[in-house]
Amino acid sequence: MKNYRAELTGVFGDPVDDNPTGVVEEAAFQAKGLNYRYLTIRVLPEDLETAMASVRVFGMKGINLTMPHKIKVLGFLDELSEAASIIGAVNTVIHRDGKLYGENTDGKGFVTALKKEGMSLEGKHVTMLGAGGAARAICVECALNGAGQITVINRNAERGKELATLLNERTNCRAEYLAWEKETKIPEDTEILINGTSAGFSPNVNDRPDIDYASVGEKMCVCDVVFHPVETVFLREAAERGAKTVTGLGMLVQQAALNFTLWTGMEAPVDVMEEALRKEFE
Length: 282
Ligand SMILES: NC(=O)c1ccc[n+]([C@@H]2O[C@H](COP(=O)([O-])OP(=O)(O)OC[C@H]3O[C@@H](n4cnc5c(N)ncnc54)[C@H](OP(=O)(O)O)[C@@H]3O)[C@@H](O)[C@H]2O)c1
What we know:
Blueprint: E1 7-13, H1 21-31, E2 36-42, H2 48-57, E3 62-65, E4 79-80, H3 82-87, E5 92-96, E6 99-103, H4 105-116, E7 125-129, H5 133-144, E8 149-154, H6 157-170, E9 174-179, E10 192-195, E11 221-224, H7 233-240, E12 244-246, H8 248-264, H9 270-281
């Protein structure tokens, strides 16, 4: 018998029109010959409950959540992963056996990209610039993957302290907050330095986090969450000081790859997905 019914996945957000994830996931579905679709759907905040009910009604394989739904969606799910429960936010929902399972792949994508570069987190001192959604997810995942110490540096002290407290209370990793002063110095024993802020994101491509770049050491691994442009001023400055650098593109690709696997049960064609994204950002 012919099957004209496609398996559905997608993203709910508002605004959502400029979310590039569909390009990556659709490229992967095609490469694997899967009759799956990824729909980019605008869902207003007050309609999220109905939208999540439709995931069940339409028998969708799952859905991504982006702004402003990542926290509110927790109220409409059956189960949460450990990371999603600590972070308190979900960006990926898997619909399996009639249940909606919440996961957060932001941090997992980062950790996978880091490991792909041959970096381990075990016992490492991580310094995070920023304490927003991406920074929070990455810090929790670093802690769950054995980081020994995390220093959070953020402009907004309340948000920065809250993240350090969360890590101390909910994980085995030691964490502290450092105030972000003008040209903040990076702690000397930092092994992994991460820009978790949006500084440098297109179109503000000449922006960079306001740190003392002379304090970035050649032994540090320096990572950016900003993926557009791929080569940021922050990473260029770090590379000029001899540091190893990891771009935000790897995190984005690995996250999308994880989503693909969670929804299809198949290994993701990571190279195809990365190529699709690079082409999109050209
Ligand atoms: N590569 C990936 O896969 C991936 C995944 C998710 C997000 N991202 C990127 O990560 C970035 C952050 O996203 P988010 O969801 O975490 O945003 P968010 O929740 O709005 O948080 C933004 C953070 O950036 C800080 N910030 C913004 N501009 C800054 C500046 N000029 N100097 C210092 N700090 C600044 C904010 O500090 P205050 O708290 O002091 O305001 C806050 O900590 C975005 O560019 C997003 O595109 C990348």
